[in-house]
Amino acid sequence: MPLIKITPPPGIKKNGTDYSNPNSWIDGNLVRFENGFLKNIGGWRKLKETPLDGSPIGAYAYRTNEPGDVLAVGTREKVYVLYRNQWYNITPVGFQSDIGNSPLGFGAHIYGQEDYGDARSTSGLLFNTQPFAFTNFGELLLFVSGSDGKVYQWSPQNGGNYATPDTVATQVTNSPTNASGVLVTNERHVLCFGAANNPRKISWSSRETLTDWTPTATNSAGDLEVVTGGEVLGGVKYGTDVIVFTDVGINKVYYTGAPFIYGIQEAGQNCRAASMRTVVNAGDFICWMGDNSFYLYNGRVQKIPSDVHDFVFDNINYQYRRAATGGHNQLFSEVWWFFPSGESTVPNKYVIWNYKEQHWSIGELDRSFWIDQGVFDYPISGDSTGLIYEHETNTLQGSHNIGTAKPFCKTGAIEIGNGDRLMQVNQIIPDGDAKSLLGYKIKFKGRQTPLGAETDFGSFTFEADGYQDCRFTSRQVNFEVEGDIDQDFEVGVVRLDARQRGRR
User: Fold this and answer.
1) CA-CA distance, 6 to 412, in Å (whole number)?
2) pTM: predicted TM-score of the whole model, two decimal places
3) Domains in the chain: how many in total?
């Protein structure tokens, strides 16, 4: 008989039950799919040996005029920059941190749960961690934290000396207060969201200035309000426009020139982001995690079909959904989203959307932000403990806090026999280069009937010659690929040399 191909198509499917996804990958961790191959993700290493104070909730990277790239990280307590391989605590004097933001309270959950008069162990109040918004105005770092609302600046040079950067960030003179975000437009206006105690308001400075915010006949400062209901959460640049997110949907802010400078129009309804932290600019499009779907904007809003919808939205800790975050991994054409699952209050699981090949992967990692490579050589992330990492650096060997985790991916039921005929499997033949074959093993289980008892057929490793003899009989099988953390691997088509046996 010809060899039987049993490898499912790329991507993990987690919607419905495992048995409703036959001939598919149904679970995994620390793996990705690329060009049809199952592979391990890259490892990570600490960028800073000791943790920052507080859980990171935002980051930004940019390049200065002089050699000395800047990484800015905002935590729930402080603000830091990495500049010329040195970390600086630049937390402004009087900065209002997010550390006291807790959803626990009295009587805010389902009636009748827990004891009357006691504070709830969990509450119906939304955890509302206020993210940081970072941007740069030339060499100047600008940032706003939603918990503080003031616009701050930091310079990599003090008095023209790049060797002595500012030791602390300072408030931008005359800038709006109670802001939820900030960015610099293509026209060199500084834009603030939700300023001056008006959550619907968008204000901008006069062109090429930081301190001129009051509109006059001789400047280009101004303001407007979003055209839909709800408060402004923040915004991102997309092409020549700024896409503004509210707690209802999105608006598009566009340049008009004098006398109004900017205009605004609705761009999408009922598509709010779970948080601004989940909004990812992938260049050709913007995408984000909503309350119950993933969305994409490329001129119009559309839902992203997802094979892992149930894995995310049936398990997310809804009260803490604003702790979710996302990032772009352009090297692999991926968008990553991290979210708190079950009773976790910090992101502990992730999904990967490969937008080039249109498939998904899943796994478990504690990550609270992600920024793409570009300014720095590797993607950079942080975890809830305050540690900062470089990703995709090597194999998984030595990755901090990996513990006993190994990359794996398992399938649902795969039929290898027709009708009531059993198949005797005599040999397993995976493809791949000789080195890769040494980096993983395959575990097989099978059933004689769809609802019959499952039999463990063993674990099989491979030599450089590319096959492994075996002997087991079944009508359907599922298998799991388990990789070693000290070696990269890839798995393409797995084939079985099998012969038909009698009826079961």
Assistant:
1) 11
2) 0.92
3) 1
